[in-house]
Amino acid sequence: MKTYKLYVFSQDNCGPCDKLKNFVTTLPEADRKELDFVPLRTAVEDKRTALAEEFDVLLTPTLLVVHEELSCSIEDGDEWCDPKEVEVERLVGANNIIEHLDVVIDSYTYAHPE
Questions:
Q1: What whole-number distance in Å separates Cα of residue 66 and Cα of residue 90?
Q2: With the C-alpha atoms ordered 34, 102, 16, 7, is the resulting torsion angle positive or negative?
Q3: What kind and span of H or E run contains 26?
Q4: Mapping DSSP to helix (H, G, I), strand (E, B) and coil, where does residue 41 land?
Q5: What is the pLDDT of residue 46?
Q6: Which residues contact 19 (CB under 8 A, 6 or more apart)?
Q7: Has residue 1 got a pLDDT over 70?
Q8: In this structure, is residue 114 part of a structural domain?
């Protein structure tokens, strides 16, 4: 079972972000559904979002592939598990993302059935 998320960090007034978004509109719907566009910065304070801070994303567009894992520990005989996202791959720049997007979607999702 593939348990990956594909985040695309973008922002307004970003030419490369617009180029990537335009390219994504040409993809099959199954591919588009795998990409989660998220903002780099908050709208109000113009600070990096918590997700951008967590993964130290500084530039847009950035495609970040994360694996969803459980981090578990045992305390006093009880097991506690928390979900955790771990970075697997990072691509920066519209041209780089466009060039590798098909392989990334194929490798980390079920969008391309065999």
A1: 9
A2: positive
A3: none
A4: strand
A5: 82
A6: 94, 98
A7: no
A8: no
**Burial classification of residue 112, based on how many CB atoms lie within 10 Å of its CB (0-12 exposed, 13-18 middle, 19 or more buried):** middle
Backbone phi, psi, residue 35, to 5°: -95, 125
Q: What is the mean pLDDT of residues 11-27?
A: 96
Question: Quick one: which of 58, 108, 64, 109 has its CA closest to 90?
Answer: 64
Instruction: Name residues whose C-beta falls within 8 Å of residue 100's C-beta, 6 or more positions apart in sequence.
Output: 91
Q: CATH number of the domain that 39 lies in?
A: 3.40.30.10
- Can you tell me the distance from the alpha carbon of 92 to that of 32, in angstroms, rounded to the nearest whole number? 18
The pTM is what?
A: 0.87
Number of domains in the chain: 1
| Tens-digit pLDDT profile for residues 79-109 | 888 888 899 999 999 999 999 999 999 999 9
Answer whether 84's CB lies under 8 Å from 70's CB. yes
pLDDT value at 71 more than 80: no
Alpha-carbon separation of residue 5 from 2, 26, 106 (angstroms): 9, 20, 13
